[in-house]
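Quick illustration, no need to memorize.
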Amino acid sequence: MHCGAWRLGATGARLAVAKWYRLPYDASQQRGVLKLMAVIEITSEFITLAQALKIADVVGSGGEAKNLVRGGTVRVNGAVEVQPGKKLRVGDKFQVEGAEGAGWTIGAKKG
């Protein structure tokens, strides 16, 4: 499933792909849960958490990203993160409390 692609300034990153992932077994529903996880492709070594939140269209500006992250509502690789400048590298995953889907993962741009 394709979610559209766009670039964010000089970072060379884009939100390019969305995939369905089966999350752990949900005992209340007697089955696994499918959630949508989007992939943010990067061409550089890393992208900051604030930049990733803007690319994912969770926030509209860097100031909003800082407030959201410092509020403790963002998890990176399962742990609460309060530093908007946290460097995300290929393979890292982040989630925003209250956002739809399983979250976002950082991937390497192919080609």
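The CA atoms of residues 22 and 81 lie 24 Å apart.
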